[in-house]
Amino acid sequence: MSIISNNIKYLRKMHKLTQEQFAEKINIKRSLVGAYEEGRADPRLHNLLNISSVFEVTVDDLITQDISMMPAKKTNAEQKSDREKASGDLRVLAITVDAQENELIDLVPQKAAAGYLNGYADPEFLEDLPKFRLPNLPANATYRAFEISGDSMLPLQSGTIVIGQYVEDWQQIKSGKTFIVITATEGVVYKRIFNYIEESKKLFLVSDNPLYAPFKVLAQDVLEVWESKAFISLQFPEPEGDHEVSLQKLTGIVLNLQQEIIKLKEK
Q1: What is the pLDDT of residue 72?
Q2: Which CATH architecture has domain 3-86?
Q3: How many CB atoms lie within 10 A of CB 88?
Q4: Fewest CB within a 10 Å sphere: which of 11, 27, 131, 143?
Q5: Which string of DSSP letters, residue by residue, matches 30-41?
Q6: What is the CATH topology of the domain spanning 105-232?
Q7: Angle CA(72)–CA(49)–CA(91) in degrees, nearest 5?
Q8: How many angstroms separate the CA atoms of 123 and 132, rounded?
Q9: Sign of the torsion angle spanned by Cα atoms 177, 183, 185, 186
Q10: 105-108 and 143-147 beta bridge pairing
């Protein structure tokens, strides 16, 4: 492969971008990124200029230097990457796609949750996970599914599969919403988040079940964050309040409807 091919692949991986995300940044088709990285095509001048501008490298370095081997000082792109990490920026590290290059939803079952901490960035680990697609989810986003355990987030029962959309930047974490959070200290958890990263570089994680106490995690310990978008469960949530009273109310509503129908027939 050419120097340009290696440099494009290096820049994409350094910023932990998928080919689709890289393509969007420089306004080209994803298939072109693959062709560039595999050396099947060379970028035209305007695409080289876009890459140079977006990733803050000179066109000269892009076409003549092995950026990954540049000694001593960091490239502008690496400095930008460091700034992003310091501000809490999060990136997708690996995804899986089908034969048509459509992203698949990887399912992380309970038994694989511990291994996920070591394998979340490893394509080979993700390859072994179950996969599926949901046609009604919005496109242009990356999703992953996690099987939750325990009763800390009732009414969602243990075994429920929560589907999350990847959060690329901590500023997208809206306080009060539910997320799957992967941390080096707590593992994979599904909680309601309150975002205090700007003030104290911490996230507060709260369970919907009041029997569980809230706790905090440092932003530096956060590996991934996925905003919950849907769930799959074999158990339907119970009605709020006293279950027996709720059933009585439902029964009363049905009886009233039956009486109304009888009255209408008599008229």
Answers
A1: 38
A2: Orthogonal Bundle (1.10)
A3: 19
A4: 27
A5: HHHHHHHHTTSS
A6: Umud Fragment, subunit A (2.10.109)
A7: 65
A8: 16
A9: positive
A10: parallel
Reading phi first (left if > 0) and then psi (alpha if -120 to 50, else beta), residue 201 is in left
- In the three-class reduction of DSSP (H, G, I as helix; E, B as strand; rest coil), residue 194 is classed as strand
Distance, CA of 170 to CA of 195 (rounded, Å): 8
Q: If you search the block for the tokens 């995300």, which residue do you land on?
A: 21
State both tokens at 115.
């291994």
**pLDDT (tens digit, 9 = 90+) per residue, 190-205?**
999 999 888 888 899 9
pTM over 0.70: no
Distance CA 224, CA 99 (A): 26
Alpha helices in the chain (DSSP H): 3-14, 19-26, 30-37, 45-55, 59-64, 76-86, 113-119, 123-127, 197-200, 243-266
3-86 and 105-232 agree in CATH topology: no
Domain ranges of the chain: 3-86, 105-232, 243-267
Q: How far is CA 182 from CA 39, 124, 141, 227, in A?
A: 36, 19, 18, 12
